[in-house]
Fold this sequence. Notes:
Blueprint: H1 3-9, H2 13-24, E1 28-30, H3 31-43, H4 48-68, E2 72-74, E3 80-83, H5 90-93, H6 96-99
Antiparallel strand pairs: 1-3, 2-3
Helix pairs in contact: 3-4
Amino acid sequence: MDTHEAFAILADTDRQHIVTELLETDGRSTVGILADQLAARRQNHVDELERERAEVELVHNHLPRLADHGVLAYDRASGEVVLTDASGLEPYLTDPTRKRTIPLDS
């Protein structure tokens, strides 16, 4: 995957969150869990209307787009989402500030 394609995929923060979440959960999740997480991230709690909106965006926008680029596969019937190849995106998802250790006062 070239840099332009990676940036186009990751231009949306929801897609960044989806890929990061899959990387952190052994590459498996469900549409329902991802919708809950996206809704909670937007509202700091899971609001049913926001959750439905997140699920619609996942199923009709984000998941098909990521699947078209070979990043993940998902089954609409079961709702299962499986990461297939995020190697082209991982370098752009690394946040060096998250890896720093903050010294604690003794």
